[in-house]
Amino acid sequence: MNRYTDYDSFARIYNKHWGSNFIPLVLPILEKYLFTRLPANARILDLCCGTGQLDRLLTDRGYQVTGIDGSEEMLRFARENAPAAEFVLADARSFELPDTYHAVISTFDSLNHILSLEELTDAFKNVYNSLRKGGLFLFDMNMAAGFKKDWHDEFSIVEEDDVCIVRSRYNPDEKVALFMATIFYRNDGWQRSDLTLKQRCYSEDEVLPALGKAGFTETNSYACDVLSGLIELTDDAERAFFICIKS
After folding, report:
1. I want to staple 55 with a disulfide (CB 3.0 to 4.6 A). Which of 82, 116, 153, 228 is the partner?
2. What's the N-to-C CA distance of the chain in angstroms?
């Protein structure tokens, strides 16, 4: 299986403009539903860790953190942002780690980038195998309502040394979303790169059985309310959070 490298050419811009964006939403959820259930100095695996801004916060709290990502360039920034964490270049669909982790997290709709249910199930199996007995798996995914609402946008970021032009589209028939970016950055003159990132929309009725196939017998799904925290997941939820336990 090929390692997921699509973010290599996006890493510089992602680190600067996206890397910390999700933290204000996810950190209160981690504090309420994960940290309170972990021992001091717990081992946490951050799957699809990106450029590591969240891992810096986790290590600052005393957790032993391992980040996995398929992009070598993303990990280059992650090692700078979270020097106390360990990082592994590997793919979510095929990684193998010993069952030493108290928790696995995967945030900012990272697992939507896995484009088939079979491969998503493989990723869940790898997570299950890396958890200790009683370990927790917490992740979020974009849902159909979120794709329909947000993935038809065009915007640009213009700064002195970089420019990023983004177009996003969602095809509800194929359940595939496209994030198309043209990037210019100054490095001994201006350089250009073009990339297309894909996400797949999964329903709760697909995700929960896949978790079951991976071995999780206790799984819960939620929507997120900014004031109330995790609430009942309904069809109009734009994002879902899943919390699973390795029994």
Report:
1. 82
2. 29
